[in-house]
Amino acid sequence: MKFKAYKIERTQMKLAGINVYNVDVPAVRQLKLASATVLHLQSTVVELITDTRLVGFGETCPAGPVYQPQHMLGARAALQEIGSSLIGLDPRNIGQLNRTMDAALNGSRYAKAAIDIAAWDIAGQAYNRRVCDLLGGATGGTIPAYYSISRASPDEMAREARERQREGYARIQLKIGGRDVEEDIETLHKVKGATALGIRIAADANRSLTSRDAMFLSHRCRGISMVMEQPCNTIEEIAAIRHQLCHPVYMDESAEDVNSILRATSGGVVDGFGLKLTRVGGISALRTIRDICDALSLPHTCDDTWGGDIIAAACVHVGATVAPSRFEGCWIAAPHIRGHFDDENPVRIEAGRIQVPTGPGLGVTPRRDQLGSPIMSFG
Questions:
Q1: Is the pTM of this model over 0.90?
Q2: How many domains is the chain built from?
């Protein structure tokens, strides 16, 4: 049997330039974590410019220099090292683009993530499809968001949890740690008493609990339906107490890349993940981790530490492709920051859900007046 050969025409495309911008992302109010307080951050926005006039945007915005090893100045130093090596490449060949970045610089996944996100934005526009369509297709027009409550007094956190549930959030993340464990235990019990049945609670210690306090808290809160998110600093610490806890354990800060996910899953250390898009390396890496979690029936989030509409859109596009039974929701900074990058197509939460952007690519375009002048350029 003979098959007819078809010639597929493909328009040539090359990266002609790269611009990097500094964009302020101020918080509406302080967000207190166990090891840091977020009030005003500077996001790094990357613009990929092609010789066909298509432009794609990416973003990376670490939550300060203490929360994780990633930090704003490090991202910009990495982009300075990488930028010139990408000129002339076809940004639609995203795998090749990532291999070129790895050849130019070891590590710094959070900086490379901005390039990766922008390349997916261009690919979507080139093929007139949304990023979520290129990733396998969205499960619906909206996805669930979850709300993170800053560390405060037990009464204040309980009051806010009740309000957020009334707004439509089905999952509440409570920031704990960095204080007497008795106050955290009191907080969890008061939140349980203040909220209605059906609310899902994540007690997020951001690596701050000792093994002793993690076990103490879990046993004292045995009657509360919740997950413990990154209770201790390392995978090894979590593994040592894993089977002495009363609650499922999710890994967040230690979920740094595909390899760390594989180590945790192969060792049976965790029951799920809080996944940060830029930390793991961008949309490409998060897609791989999504598929690993799907194969192993492990629930997870798709979010990031901070940032504007570009990061939010990227998180939503990946989250929209996760099987609902595996999806723990998406956290975006929108409720916590002032304004949007794209006033016409903002990524925002309504009644606890986020609409999946409808335009090609990421579906958002930052305003030029907000970007200002580039802080570095290539090409």
A1: yes
A2: 2
39 vs 232 pLDDT, higher one? 232
| Residues 159 and 48 reside in one and the same domain | no
87-93 average pLDDT score = 98
Tell me the three-class secondary structure of the chain, residue by residue. CCCCCCCCCCCCCCEEEEEEEEEEEEEEEEEECCCCEEEEEEEEEEEEEECCCCEEEEEECCCCCCCCCCCHHHHHHHHHHHHHHHCCCCCCCHHHHHHHHHHHCCCCHHHHHHHHHHHHHHHHHHCCCEHHHHCCCCCCCEEEECEEECCCCHHHHHHHHHHHHHHCCCEEEEECCCCCHHHHHHHHHHHHHHCCCCCEEEEECCCCCCHHHHHHHHHHCCCCCEEEECCCCCHHHHHHHHHHCCCCEEECCCCCCHHHHHHHHHCCCCCEEEEEHHHHCCHHHHHHHHHHHHHHCCCEEEECCCCCHHHHHHHHHHHCCCCCCCECCECCCHHHECCCCCCCCCCCEECCEEECCCCCECCCCCCHHHHCCCCEEEC
Per the annotation, the verdict on 2 as an active-site residue is no
Which CATH number do you get for residue 307? 3.20.20.120
Question: Domain check: are 109 and 225 in the same one?
Answer: no
Domain holding 41: CATH number? 3.30.390.10
Catalytic residue among 32, 112, 175, 192: 175
pLDDT band at 3 (very low <50, low <70, confident <90, very high): very low
Same domain, 123 and 148: no
Told to judge if 4 belongs to the known catalytic residues of this protein, a careful annotator would answer no
Residue 108, domain member (yes or no): yes
